[in-house]
Predict the structure of Type I glutamate--ammonia ligase.
Amino acid sequence: MDKQRDFVLRTIEERGVKFVRLWFTDVVGTLKSVAIAPAEVEGAFTEGIGFDGSAIEGLTRSYESDLLANPDPTTFQILPWRGEIDPTARMFCDITTPDGQPAVADPRYVLKRTLAKAGDAGFTFYTHPEIEFYLLKSSRFGPDGPEPVDSAGYFDNVPGGTAHDFRRRSVRMLEDLGISVEYSHHEGGPGQNEIDLRYADALTTADNIQTFRTVVKEVAIEQGVYATFMPKPLSDQPGSGMHTHMSLFEGDVNAFYEAGAQYQLSRIGRHFIAGLLKHANEISAVTNQFVNSYKRLWGGDEAPSYVCWGHNNRSALVRVPMYKPNKGQSSRVEYRALDSAANPYLAYALMLAAGLKGIEEEYELPGEAEDNVWSLTPGERRALGFAPLPSSLEHALEYLEESELVAETLGEQMFNYVLLNKRREWEEYRSQVTPFELRRNLEML
């Protein structure tokens, strides 16, 4: 760590960095930032930077507000969108109390704690997210809703189009930040795009997702458009998911791979999937944390609505992708409920905790979904045991409130905050009189 700190201090001097932004995340997943001068960085490494935690969503109770942001030197990067005028860098922070203890409501710490539990069981957790988002002409919208930048569809090539230039610029910027991109393409909705990040350990991935969102927003501003990660911004178009591929490794060996097994999926992999299925509804208020999230889950267009798994079945909640012969290291499972607005630290912590619980308790994996789950009748789904995901945030909170797994993983303070914060969102939503009601009822009643 001392070598890494020395590298940061040397790079700041050599590159003429004028500001260093210290980044951390609140409980909802909003990125927070404080800029310090280069002369303050060494002190930040040794003593941290103090701030009022009670002013940040869910981070502390008001009577214990003093917290310290401690920069992680391994996350140091120059921000490419700042250019050569006043070069600016960033580091992610771990949040601690004044006596040096981890802040219990720091989302990054929640994930690190869960990863440590996996480490005690001999596992390293890797993730690979496919992040969808919409490009709109503006954040303002009229009676017809937001206006996308184009009318293109899935994998469409739009010569000279905004999205094409946007993706090229974004990918270049991400690569400059050391974030490897696997694919980028136009998605199914007008103005909808997808950029897939390469596999990394889950903590690095979560940091990368937070950086990714910032890059996408910055490039959009630069190009005169607006980017949104809202799960379902357009009522008649697909929502934006963050399908995440996951695997556990024991050293250099993929614990999900077993040669000769069905789909090359090991017993550990099967138990992991069973854990995801069993606890899916309990973790839903975090993996899908907004009222709008449930418009995506129940709006069709390949969003999963039922708790089931399948081999290469895109209508299932958990998918086991087609395996490549002689490539056992690529064995993985894909969780498809997660949306692009989730807090990645908390979502990955809970998905990992659910999978680990399945391994610890040796949950039995139910039969797979072989057909298109959406095309089945309600009776057929019931007969096959495919229970629905929560239909609303309120429904998801009912599961969350009773969940020992979520309470244990998040910790008491964060668990209570999430519950109260999301109940408040539901109450505010439920009290609204919507345009739908006015159009439907005002003249008729």
